[in-house]
DNA sequence: CAATAACTGTGTACGTCATACACTATAAGT
DNA sequence: ACTTATAGTGTATGACGTACACAGTTATTG
């Protein structure tokens, strides 16, 4: 039997309840909440152990009774910063997954610092797994097998993540500053300025025709919806294939 | 006109050539190469300014003549760690994009530390843009408009990224250790152990039926190919639609 | 009721890291 | 020969993560 990594165990409240000693003034939830507030306000860079401790009115070392180290804290943050998934109120699988993916992306836009954590962590907390569960549930009625469902969700997750990254990186998400590029328009200009049409024929042609000039629409639904439909069309095609002649996968 | 952020400028060799002073012993390429070697060997955590400097036989502060700060260095690394994209040797758009996406994922599997950087950075370096260019080029013959092409590539990139993350996170990629979970099987066990069937009906059912038990296949092509085809089917459907009745987008 | 054991939060200390600043050495232009 | 811009160095600083020993607190045990 595999042992639960300590933080994961605590995320699920599977830690033995202490029977002796002073009543704890903190708990994992409070610590995480404080850390998230800081991240929202100042970005991940502002989240230091002392900053979190200060906000809780506590010495930095106190936190180590609840998290093994800072990485642990980040993992827990990455889970509890995620709100519950949308409710499947009698929607078709397609409508639900569309809403699901958009909500997914919106979370990442609202908390860009999640981008720096999620890219590295498998979903193992209650929230992220609830999202996973709901998406799989939406596919429950379809003739896809488990692996296919799982991969479908993976693809959707990836799309949400990449879209959010793009929006955030080009600055259209609102925040700018930081390391340089601040806005899709400027991004386009920079590319146009630098691209050698010979080495980058297609891209530079696109840039001169002003693709990214008007691309504050990255945040708008139009572009996002397009890619989303792309994926869902693929799923739908597969489902139709499976429905017509029912045979095993592969 | 937008100014080039200094690092980006240097990535493209657009820096004024120095006319006086001692001959430089370093250049951005050498620094980046050293940093990448360290990242490959010890992970991103091993990449400190002093570590890189030591490897180059130079004082840490010397690096700051070439990069403004450490984040700059990471940005440059994220670009130059990427090899040239596969060659479109008379392939159909579909075959090429399939190869392209798989190659994309393989890079991320070979250098997992890229996952921690790419999630945050827009592609602005020569390598990443070359990849973008080739993918767009592959779609050149299709009736999709520029925005649609761009979004298609975004979706594919996202899929590669998420797949790689999943493989790497569940440990099937080879490396383990670090923060806990080490291997898809163990991951599955942990989930099975922790999931309340009432709160996670679908997911826990899948787990008990052993979905992740046999999922060392995540690295295998089977699962990856499935999701990829999902996407490409979507693209193909769109192309067919566009080809039949040719009207503007939206 | 006293003694013990388990637990919480603190204070201090250390090693690492990114980076600012002042300096020396070097080579090109005058 | 002299000036001047540049390259790499040495030293210093402040922030950060975290190890460790301790003091205070509470439930359990005798």
UniProtKB/TrEMBL annotation, chains A, B:
It comes from the Bacteria. One of its GO terms (molecular function) is DNA-binding transcription factor activity. Residues 48-67 bind DNA. The keyword Transcription regulation applies. Gene3D superfamilies: Homeodomain-like, Tetracycline Repressor, domain 2. Keywords: DNA-binding, Transcription, Transcription regulation. One of its GO terms (biological process) is negative regulation of DNA-templated transcription. InterPro entries: Homeodomain-like_sf, HTH-type_TetR-like_transc_reg, HTH_TetR, Repressor_TetR_C, Tet_transcr_reg_TetR-rel_C_sf. Residues 25-85 form the HTH tetR-type domain. This is TetR family transcriptional regulator. It comes from Planobispora siamensis.
């Amino acid at each position: 039997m595999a042992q639960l990594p300590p933080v994961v165990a605590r995320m699920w409240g599977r830690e033995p309840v202490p029977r002796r000693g002073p009543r704890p003034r903190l708990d994992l939830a409070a610590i995480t909440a404080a850390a998230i507030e800081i991240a929202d306000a100042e970005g991940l860079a502002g989240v230091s152990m002392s900053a979190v401790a200060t906000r809780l009115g506590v010495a930095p070392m106190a936190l180590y009774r609840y998290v093994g180290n800072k990485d642990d804290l980040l993992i827990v943050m990455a889970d509890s910063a995620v709100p519950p998934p949308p409710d499947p109120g009698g929607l078709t699988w397609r409508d639900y997954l569309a809403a699901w993916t958009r909500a997914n992306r919106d979370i990442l836009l609202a908390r860009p610092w999640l981008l720096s954590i999620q890219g590295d962590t498998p979903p193992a907390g209650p929230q992220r797994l609830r999202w996973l569960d709901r998406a799989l549930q939406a596919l429950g009625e379809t003739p896809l097998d488990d692996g296919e469902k799982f991969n479908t969700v993976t693809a959707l997750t990836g799309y949400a993540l990449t879209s959010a990254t793009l929006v955030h990186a080009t600055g259209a998400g609102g925040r700018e500053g930081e390391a340089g590029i601040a806005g899709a328009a400027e991004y386009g200009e920079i590319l146009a300025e630098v691209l050698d049409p010979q080495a980058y024929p297609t891209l530079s042609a696109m840039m001169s025709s002003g693709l990214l000039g008007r691309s504050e629409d990255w945040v708008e639904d139009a572009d996002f919806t397009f890619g989303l439909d792309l994926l869902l069309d693929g799923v739908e095609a597969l489902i139709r294939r499976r429905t017509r002649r029912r045979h095993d996968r592969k």
